[in-house]
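Researcher: Batch entry, complex prediction.
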Amino acid sequence: MTAGSQAIRLSAWTRASRAVFRPARPRPTRDDDERSLAKVEWAHLIGRVAAERDAAAFRTLFEHFAPRIKGFLLRTGTRDDQAEEIAQETMAAVWRKAELFDPATSGAAAWIFTIARNLRIDAARRAARSVQVDHEAEQDYLADPAESPESSLSRLEETSRVAAALQRLSRQQSDVIRLSFIEERPHAEIAEQLGIPLGTVKSRIRLAMSRLRNLLDQPT
Amino acid sequence: MTIVHHPPEHLLAAFAAGTLDPGEHLLVAVHASGCAGCRRFVRAVEDLGGAALESAEPAPMSAGAFEAVMASIDGAATPNTVAAGPAPGHILDDRLPAILRNYQIGARRRVAPGVSLHPIRLPDGGGSRAFLLRSDPGTRMLEHSHTGTELTCVLKGSFSHDGGRFGPGDFDFGDGTVDHQPVVGDGEPCLCVVAMTGDLRLNGFLGRLISPFIRL
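Model: Structure tokens for the complex:
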């Protein structure tokens, strides 16, 4: 092989820093290394938005997350125009609240999910033109479990306990919770997707949640 | 204060997903604001939400969406929701959980001897209603079941029924499968937040006499 045709291997960190300054490209199928790299990338980009109001970093975040927020909302039954609006409002909130994001205690995708979730609740209530409750403000009272008198764990201990519990849940168990509660799929679809009997879906959901609760309540 | 009774996991998971109706949402939020274990569970389900977001099929944003977002940021527009202000001082007990400051609490209304309530104004959607319920020590509630669901979170004092003793922070979930007669603990009044869908099904001779006149 000549030097010219030899593939240039970029280090993982070089790839990551280049992604900050280049618009996002369609990505190949991820393996675990790329997935954890992506997590560091998103947290890093949010950090740049927080510290430097970096519009290029924000664009990369936008191009990755906005269509996924919109797609997720469409899949769970939100109207097209509302899904577009909530996706835009979520990304605007990501910009405004970037300095509140703590990568040590939260994944970027989970953080962005909670913002979209709150905005979706607000939109549903607004439609009724009635009393409004500020669901983002409510989050202030639902702070990290560590920031409370009844928990003796530090923020990092709380985060690693949650992460450890989710890891110890079987793949099928975390899938069944995600598909039923987050993605609101009907049981028939869950049964088909996971290759399990329809009649067992309800009890598997209950079992998975009970197992998750037990894992979370145990000291690691 | 040791919390013994927690919301069932399906309520916590739905809370994390943002799919509860306003009454259920209020009750779980009040309990979770004082319970690290339940907040931990909510957090775990939110992490699954993040995974769902990452694996969602992307839908193309409209042309100019990014520019629209940048423009809205520069305008620093304030959110459009009208946040509920704090309730008037003479109603708001300073030992109410701070999270309730997010809600409008109405005037006190007597329901029965030793029992009064303050309605809590909820956003529409779901047909649930909520209120602060205040009962004198030792009050024996009417035996009842439910046509819908009744969620209760104790703020002060306690009550007991055959499901156990419920003190500050404890969460009680009642539906048509229960038929209970709560008794308020001695020593101090019991203050709870309650959310209900459907109606009470008052049983017993006295209950059936009174039920046309009671609407909680």
